[in-house]
Each structure stands twice: as C-alpha cells, then as structure tokens.
Amino acid sequence: MSAADLPAKAAERRFLEEVPLPAPLRRDLWLDRPADWSRLADSALAWGFRRQRDGEATRADVDAHSLASTWWVEEVAPAVDRIRENAPTDLVDVQLYITELARRDGVAELRWPPSHCCPDHTRQS
User: Fold this and answer.
1) Do residues 95 and 68 make contact, with C-beta atoms less than 8 angstroms apart?
2) Which residues make Cβ contacts (< 8 Å) with residue 68, sequence separation at least 6?
3) So what's the pLDDT on residue 39?
4) For 29-58, how does the pLDDT look when each residue is reduced to its tens digit (9 = 90+)?
5) Could you tell me if 80 and 92 are in contact, meaning their C-beta atoms sit under 8 angstroms apart?
6) What are phi and psi of 117, to 5 degrees?
7) CA-to-CA separations, 59 to 55, 63, 115, in angstroms, rounded
8) C-beta separation of 58 from 52 below 8 A
9) Which residues contact 95 (CB under 8 A, 6 or more apart)?
10) pLDDT value, residue 38
11) What does the alpha-carbon distance between residue 86 and residue 68 come to, in Å, rounded to a whole number?
C-alpha cells in the first residue's frame, strides 16, 4: 500500500462504518476509487430504505449489521451471479457489482485494467 491508496482506504473505512459487512465478505472488498465506495454505501442504504418503504422490514428489523448482510445476500450476490454466468471474469464481486450499478445508472461503462484488479489472494473463483 502506498500514500496514493490512502483516500480509497479512508473511503472503504467510511463504507464499512455505514454498511458493516461480516468479516468473511470484507476480505474480498477491493475498490480503488473513493467515489465507488460512496456509490456502494448509497446503494446499500437505498436498498434498505426501499425494503422499509415497501413493508418488507421495519425500522426495528433493520440494524446496520442485519442490513449489510441481507443487502449482500439478497441484492449483491444474485446480481454478481447473473453477471458471472454471462461473462466470466476475474474481478471480485464488489468490482462487478459497482460496474453493474454504473450500468443501471447509465454511467459510462467502467473498465478495470489488470492493474486495478485485486491481488491473486483476494480473487474469487
């Protein structure tokens, strides 16, 4: 890690404060751009808000840890599985999901050069 990585690591820390994912999922998180961490947090919090609005969960049911885990299982994992079925890739789940968010929002397609992919020890098979 270098000084250039510090803004992304600070953004990751803020994300994990808002969306406290379980430790096993944290090991596979890898995003280089601070804005992507903010987008990810917004996605999780908006997803939780929609669940409450639609009566799928009450405020009492949605603590931060429960929200984070449920969001990952019900929103992120299925989206990533669909993407992997159609286009195998070596990107980690969070990179695929943030790319999917960009596509959904009509943002220019995100490209991940090999130097921005996660190290081999964090890649998912």
Assistant:
1) no
2) 19, 20, 21, 22, 44
3) 93
4) 889 899 999 999 999 999 988 888 888 776
5) no
6) -75, 160
7) 10, 8, 41
8) yes
9) 30, 31, 112, 117, 118
10) 94
11) 26
pTM value?
A: 0.77
Question: In the structure encoding, which two tokens stand for residue 125, read together?
Answer: 């098979």
CB neighbour class for 57 (10 Å; exposed up to 12, middle 13-18, buried from 19) = middle
Give the H or E element holding residue 31.
none
**Contact by Cβ (8 Å): 80, 96:** yes
Integer CA distances (angstroms), 106 to 33, 40, 45, 68, 79, in order: 18, 16, 20, 25, 17
Spatial CB neighbours of 118, under 8 Å, sequence gap ≥ 6: 28, 30, 91, 92, 95
Asked if residue 13 lies in contact with residue 26, where contact means CB atoms within 8 angstroms, the answer is no
Residue with tokens 């919090």: 45
Q: What is the DSSP string of 51-113?
A: HHHTTSS-GGG--HHHHHHHHIIIIIHHHHHHHHHHS--SS-HHHHHHHHHHHHTTPPPP---
